[in-house]
């Protein structure tokens, strides 16, 4: 691979004897990986692929998965470059925490956090770019999250609305992306010797707002996919100098993950607690990760909780549907936005000032005199008591193509979650022996045995 000349000069100087191995790694094949979602069933096809475990992740494997497969569409697997998996492992939230993923699209780290929050607490997942937030929404939906709010905000607006609110904040910062060069050589065209410093200026702005949102005792996890010291060690050195209330926590170093390099910043030996992932030392593309605890003491007045907002008719239609389906959801605040019913995590405070992309799980839509459940509710139904009907792979292929299909005998009438290999795949409506199709029109595709192999 033809790396930029100034890039070569810079890393020869920084890495010394190690530089040739570092440069040689750019000509090696890209490492692919995937995570399994422990909140979903494991299909036989997944088991067959889960042979080469990523040593520092409890749920990560080397290998490639297909975006058209049942497992991917049902949120049972997520394709992720192996070094990026360290971030979710280091950030690993505790149950019931309030977590913010500030730079979140397309959702690699968000889905990782969801696997560990296990539907408890609150995840606010934010993407500033309106074009990228849709992909984040799709991935959160596939993961069946009941505890997530998706925002499309600037860090400054979020900090104004939610000061001192979060137990844990992940800043997976926009960066110069040097760790992406091997996977995506086009990324090199944005690179110039000044680019890391430009990115660092933006990262300092993002971190300045982030600090305002942390609870005393809260954790900040900062990561990049670049090797540039300006955005890595020097960013954490700046943070520690500017906010002495932060303390670095050590990150376990296994499988070729190494200490960050204090000498690439201000020499503060504490910086070695952060981690570097280099492609010549481990099986991955490259990353930098730091974990810090915040000893600030700013007291923040509790935010106002959100309240149910339903008309009497909407309340009646929802109650009728829930009764018919014997549906017992975890506590959610119910609000109708237009005809759509949302279940908002109870820990989310009033958010009128924020640009919300999705206020919580979209539970369904009020039609004239009835309630129609959503695709998102089906995908969140793994542990919910809802009528379910197992279908086989041939029927699933018909389903994702938008076709109705026939049962061999009459099924229980009404809405039912269709499952394939124990994974919920969407709603169907059983009428006699026919299953009417409620797979979202925008997601339909021509599935074959070949193009859906995991
Ligand atoms: C490294 S990517 C995030 C990848 C994501 N965490 C994942 O694992 O899939 C960084 C993101 O930060 C967003 N971003 C760019 N400028 C930003 C800013 N000023 N504040 C917050 N986010 C920003 C980008 O749009 C991009 O989606």
Descriptive notes:
Pfam families: Methyltr_RsmB-F, Methyltr_RsmF_N, Methyltranf_PUA, RsmF_methylt_CI. Belongs to the class I-like SAM-binding methyltransferase superfamily. RsmB/NOP family. This protein is an alpha+beta fold and 454 residues long. Helices cover 26% and strands 24% of the residues. It has 13 helices and 22 strands. Strands 4, 5, 6, 7, 8, 9, 10, 11, 12 and 15 form a 10-stranded mixed β-sheet that branches. Strands 18-20-21-22-19 form a 5-stranded mixed β-sheet. β20 and β21 form a beta hairpin. α1 crosses α2, α5 runs parallel beside α6 and α8 runs parallel beside α9. The longest helix is centred in the middle third of the chain and has 19 residues. The chain is globular. The model has no long low-confidence stretch (mean pLDDT 95). The protein binds S-adenosylmethionine. The site of S-adenosylmethionine (SAM) has 17 residues, from α6 and α9.
Number of helices: 13
The main sheet comes to: 10 strands, mixed
- Low-pLDDT stretches are none
Q: Rough shape?
A: globular
- CA distance, first residue to last residue: 30 Å
Average pLDDT number: 95
Q: What percent of residues are in strands?
A: 15-25%
Computed Rg: 23 Å
Give me the secondary-structure category: alpha+beta
Bound molecules: S-adenosylmethionine
Protein name: NOL1 NOP2 sun family protein
GO molecular function, one term: RNA binding
Pfam families: Methyltr_RsmB-F, Methyltr_RsmF_N, Methyltranf_PUA, RsmF_methylt_CI
Keywords: Cytoplasm, Methyltransferase, RNA-binding, S-adenosyl-L-methionine, Transferase
